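Justification of computing resources. Each target in the renewal requires a structure prediction run like the one illustrated here; the chain below, 369 residues long, is used simply to show the kind of job we budget for.
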Amino acid sequence: MSILEELKRVERLPKEYLKMTMSEKEQRIKEIKQKFGDKLLIPGHHYQRDEVIQFADVTGDSLQLAQVAQQNQSAEFIVFCGVHFMAETADMLTNHKQKVILPDLRAGCSMADMATITQTEKAWEKLINLFDETILPITYVNSTAAIKAFCGEHGGATVTSSNAKKMVEWAFTQKQRLLFLPDQHLGRNTAYDLGISLHEMVVWDPLEEVIVNEYQTPLQDVKVILWKGHCSVHEKFTVGQIEDLRKHRPEMNILVHPECTYEVVQKADLNGSTHFIIETIKKAPKGSAWAIGTEMNLVSRLAKTFKEVEIISLNATMCACLTMNRIDIDHLLWTLEDLEKGNLRNVITVDERTTAFANLALERMLKQS
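Resulting structure tokens:
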């Protein structure tokens, strides 16, 4: 079932949840969790609201959470507090008896939606005509199951922000060129760190169905084809914000996610995955100051947790990820109360063929990790 088809199933939140106090909602969730015990697993992504993350049995990045679900054989119900593509991955990795549920079907990912399977198939046909059989497709795990499956079927693999360098290196042992989906910034930053110049990269525009060749590079010299996609959160961090901090708070360490633009990553002191950001703050010297360029819920949580260092957002007006924040305590409680009644709403399922090829892409990645 496509995301659009699933969105047609979206039901309105019953008004009764809006009348409940926060303490009443929290108490009910605790009661239901206790009732289900080991049969219920609630994974919570780092970007979730605090009101939701307090009930998570495990927190982490998307793939990490899906792997935890895979390893937990006692959980019959996995209420995934994240976004749609994460729940898809959890469904693909878990067994048929386990049900993966997304509390709100509107919790999608704008980046993942920037590469549809139809667009990708059209792009692949045109790129093969231009470059022959010299391209390997690899995709960031922040992509739909269909895109992961496409990469698996065509010899490619998935990557995470933690292992992107290792996977890009692997890709070049397989083919002369690579197509990096769907985040152009992670692809560009990773390739550049590996010594590939900007002149050796072009961008595929899926809407115009053309290559954007900023440096007029001869096609035979192109090594990386970047999909024109991005994270709507991380693209809001700018060089201007960094320059302002350098001027007014020169003692600030600037730490950003590699989904930020190339220009921002180059100006920052450090860049790395969500895991890298968290570990860096854990090890930060007492009294040090950090401006972090990533999702606001995580930045705020780090500031509350590590009070011996100063932590601010690189973007002072930053909002939390809008789609991730679709999951709130009301939808979590509604989902759990329905589950208690035997009503399984918003079950995420991926068909067998897609699962097989997508898991192949994931397995190729895990083999290199």
